[in-house]
Amino acid sequence: MRGIYHKYLRLPMLIRVGLILFIILITSALLAHFYERKTFPTIFEGFYWAVITAGTVGFGDIAPKTHAVRILAIFLVFLGGAFLAYLTAHFASAVVKNENRFFEGKNMYKNEDHIIIVGWNERSRNTLKSLLNEMTAYHLVLIDHSLKENPLYQNGLHYIQGKPYEDQTLINANIEKAKLVLITADSNLTEQDADMNTILSVLTARGLNENVLIHAEILTKEQTINAKRAGADFIIHTSNLASIEMVKHLKSKYPLTKNGG
């Protein structure tokens, strides 16, 4: 008996409450059949009446005539009201809890052919907003360990909270079914450390999905070869792009020659 009781305690709360309710309804059906055999000629008739009464529907097609069964009906009405209130509160709580998990980046992504963006910074912010506006056919998943909540929740972005070089984080982002991964450099680290983190993230992603396309942002030229060795398909040198843009800007505003003239 103790083993059965412990198994019962391990069941989800909703199932436990449902079992208790079922036992009460069966017991009520047996009592109604025992006290009023004319009104409830079968146990099924008693069970039908108990369910209708507990559900506070009250069709009125079967009505008890004895005081004992009427008292039982009162008990079932209160029980049914309490159970319905519990169900409403339980489902409302489950919806809010699931919404909070989604907002906090704790829900696993389950769709396929999505794009994973690793890292939250100004570059990834602009990239995500552009992709959300221009590539509506693809679902986007953001991975970051520093954010406490989804930064683009209203835009339908799915957020995974965690470090991108940990297997479980990428598994939660459903890396096995992803179409493309874009790994941006961590702006909070030095260039060398940011590149090392990027390479480690590339290794982890490639180990979990051999076929996914991986675009990696590398800040130092020295780590380009290592990023390719780790499994990156495309290397993005944002520092070079920024330098080129600055030189273009200077030339357009202040045309210079070797003689300074």
Automatic annotation (TrEMBL):
Transmembrane segments: 12-35, 47-64, 71-92
Domain RCK N-terminal: 112-236
Major subcellular site: membrane
Record membrane topology: Multi-pass membrane protein
Tagged with keyword Electron transport: no
Record keywords: Ion channel, Ion transport, Membrane, Transmembrane, Transmembrane helix, Transport
Location(s) in or outside the cell: Cell membrane
GO biological process: monoatomic ion transmembrane transport
Annotated PANTHER family: POTASSIUM CHANNEL PROTEIN 2-RELATED-RELATED, POTASSIUM CHANNEL PROTEIN YUGO-RELATED
Full protein name: Voltage-gated potassium channel
